[in-house]
Design brief:
This protein is 23% helix and 26% strand. By secondary structure, it is an alpha+beta fold. 9% of the residues are buried.
């Protein structure tokens, strides 16, 4: 199930810039130091170590960033209910809408190119930004810039 369909939009950082996500990286450093060295002999034993770590980290250990409170003390459940069937994104009239094929391929402008199997059979939006250049979206997320040259699609990473 796509998180985007549930209204959760991913936040991206620049490649090779973990400092842009410092809190998350710090949690992984602590997890590695306290729960993986040395690793347990079995998966079940390792899972028990992870479970103990999660309980301590969330329920017992105060965090400076939370005013020396625990994450569990700050948690509140979402007021939104989980839909029985998440709906695919919808797009404004300013976008051309195409459905990604079951093998992750996009047909557009007489061309056919691989985009991603993760969004197979899902609608995507193409927003024109220049002659033969579009931005490719899945819901609110910019995936790539698409250029059509000689009936060939060229995808470039989104900036």
């Amino acid at each position: 199930m796509s998180w985007i369909k549930l209204g959760v939009v991913p936040e991206r950082i620049e490649p090779g810039k973990p400092q842009q996500n410092g809190r998350h990286e710090r949690m992984h450093k602590t997890l590695k130091a306290e729960a993986t060295s040395p690793p347990e002999a079995t998966l079940a034993a390792q899972q028990r170590v992870f479970d103990r770590f999660r309980h301590e980290y969330n329920d017992q250990r105060p965090h400076e960033a939370l005013g020396q409170r625990t994450p569990a003390s700050r948690y509140t459940p979402s007021r939104r209910t989980m839909p029985s069937k998440p709906s695919s994104p919808e797009y404004p009239d300013t976008m051309a809408v195409r459905r990604v094929g079951d093998m992750g391929r996009l047909q557009f402008g007489g061309a056919n190119t691989f985009v991603s199997k993760l969004i197979a059979n899902e609608p995507v939006g193409l927003l024109p930004i220049a002659d033969d250049v579009w931005e490719l979206y899945y819901g609110p997320v910019l995936l790539a810039q698409v250029t059509l040259k000689n009936k060939e699609l060229q995808l470039a990473k989104a900036r």
